[in-house]
Amino acid sequence: MTIAISTTENQATITLEGRLDTLSSPQLEEELKKIPETATTLTFDLAKIDYVSSAGLRVFLGEQKRLKALGGNMVVTNICPAVKEVFDITGLSDILTCT
Predict the structure, then answer these.
(1) In total, how many domains does the chain have?
(2) Residue 9: which pLDDT band, with cuts at 50, 70 and 90?
(3) CB–CB of 14/44 below 8 Å?
(4) CATH at residue 59
(5) b/e code 22-37 from CB counts within 10 Å (16+ = b)
(6) pLDDT tens column, 19-71
(7) Reduced to 3 states, what is the DSSP secondary structure of residue 81?
(8) d(C-alpha 79, C-alpha 98), whole Å
(9) Domain containing 39: what range?
(10) Looking at residue 44, what is its pLDDT?
(11) Which of 10, 16, 55, 78 shows the greatest Cβ crowding within 10 Å of its Cβ?
(12) What is the distance between the alpha carbons of residues 56 and 50, in angstroms, rounded to a whole number?
Protein backbone atom coordinates (compact mmCIF):
# COMPACT_ATOMS: atom_id res chain seq x y z
CA MET A 1 0.00 0.00 0.00
CA THR A 2 1.11 3.54 -0.73
CA ILE A 3 0.48 6.27 1.84
CA ALA A 4 0.82 9.99 1.09
CA ILE A 5 0.25 12.53 3.84
CA SER A 6 0.03 16.27 3.44
CA THR A 7 -0.40 18.50 6.47
CA THR A 8 -1.16 22.07 7.34
CA GLU A 9 -1.25 23.53 10.83
CA ASN A 10 -4.53 21.92 11.85
CA GLN A 11 -5.38 19.52 9.02
CA ALA A 12 -3.91 16.38 7.46
CA THR A 13 -4.97 14.62 4.27
CA ILE A 14 -4.05 10.96 4.03
CA THR A 15 -4.22 9.52 0.51
CA LEU A 16 -4.13 5.75 0.35
CA GLU A 17 -3.54 3.47 -2.62
CA GLY A 18 -3.81 -0.31 -2.74
CA ARG A 19 -5.32 -2.62 -0.13
CA LEU A 20 -5.79 -1.75 3.52
CA ASP A 21 -5.47 -5.14 5.14
CA THR A 22 -3.70 -7.03 7.93
CA LEU A 23 -0.30 -6.48 6.33
CA SER A 24 -0.65 -2.78 5.52
CA SER A 25 -2.63 -1.59 8.58
CA PRO A 26 0.44 -1.48 10.87
CA GLN A 27 2.22 0.63 8.25
CA LEU A 28 -0.69 3.09 8.22
CA GLU A 29 -0.76 3.23 12.02
CA GLU A 30 2.96 4.11 12.09
CA GLU A 31 2.50 6.85 9.49
CA LEU A 32 -0.44 8.32 11.39
CA LYS A 33 1.74 8.64 14.50
CA LYS A 34 3.97 11.04 12.55
CA ILE A 35 1.14 13.54 11.99
CA PRO A 36 1.48 16.55 14.31
CA GLU A 37 -0.97 16.63 17.21
CA THR A 38 -2.10 20.07 16.07
CA ALA A 39 -3.73 18.41 13.04
CA THR A 40 -7.14 17.77 14.57
CA THR A 41 -8.92 17.37 11.24
CA LEU A 42 -8.03 14.29 9.22
CA THR A 43 -9.27 13.53 5.73
CA PHE A 44 -8.74 10.03 4.38
CA ASP A 45 -8.90 9.88 0.58
CA LEU A 46 -9.78 6.31 -0.43
CA ALA A 47 -10.16 6.91 -4.19
CA LYS A 48 -7.48 4.31 -4.91
CA ILE A 49 -8.45 1.78 -2.23
CA ASP A 50 -10.48 -1.19 -3.41
CA TYR A 51 -10.35 -3.36 -0.29
CA VAL A 52 -10.45 -2.74 3.47
CA SER A 53 -10.17 -5.63 5.95
CA SER A 54 -11.26 -5.64 9.58
CA ALA A 55 -7.71 -4.56 10.50
CA GLY A 56 -8.15 -1.48 8.33
CA LEU A 57 -11.53 -0.74 9.87
CA ARG A 58 -9.88 -0.90 13.29
CA VAL A 59 -7.39 1.81 12.23
CA PHE A 60 -10.22 4.11 11.16
CA LEU A 61 -12.10 3.52 14.42
CA GLY A 62 -8.98 4.17 16.47
CA GLU A 63 -8.31 7.46 14.73
CA GLN A 64 -11.95 8.51 15.09
CA LYS A 65 -11.81 7.86 18.86
CA ARG A 66 -8.50 9.68 19.23
CA LEU A 67 -9.71 12.74 17.33
CA LYS A 68 -13.05 12.84 19.13
CA ALA A 69 -11.19 12.96 22.46
CA LEU A 70 -9.22 15.94 21.14
CA GLY A 71 -12.33 17.70 19.87
CA GLY A 72 -11.29 17.07 16.27
CA ASN A 73 -12.97 15.35 13.39
CA MET A 74 -12.28 12.86 10.64
CA VAL A 75 -13.71 12.56 7.13
CA VAL A 76 -13.40 9.63 4.73
CA THR A 77 -13.81 10.60 1.08
CA ASN A 78 -13.94 8.98 -2.36
CA ILE A 79 -15.05 5.57 -1.12
CA CYS A 80 -15.56 3.00 -3.88
CA PRO A 81 -18.87 1.05 -3.80
CA ALA A 82 -17.28 -2.19 -2.54
CA VAL A 83 -15.60 -0.46 0.41
CA LYS A 84 -18.70 1.65 1.08
CA GLU A 85 -20.69 -1.57 1.36
CA VAL A 86 -18.26 -2.85 4.02
CA PHE A 87 -18.58 0.45 5.90
CA ASP A 88 -22.39 0.17 5.72
CA ILE A 89 -22.56 -3.48 6.79
CA THR A 90 -20.27 -2.96 9.76
CA GLY A 91 -22.01 0.27 10.81
CA LEU A 92 -18.82 2.27 10.32
CA SER A 93 -20.60 4.66 7.95
CA ASP A 94 -22.84 5.61 10.90
CA ILE A 95 -19.83 6.46 13.06
CA LEU A 96 -17.60 8.20 10.51
CA THR A 97 -18.29 11.11 8.24
CA CYS A 98 -18.20 9.55 4.78
CA THR A 99 -18.47 11.61 1.61
Answers:
(1) 1
(2) confident
(3) yes
(4) 3.30.750.24
(5) eebbeebeeebeeeee
(6) 999 999 999 999 999 999 889 999 999 999 999 999 999 999 999 999 999 89
(7) helix
(8) 8
(9) 2-98
(10) 98
(11) 16
(12) 12
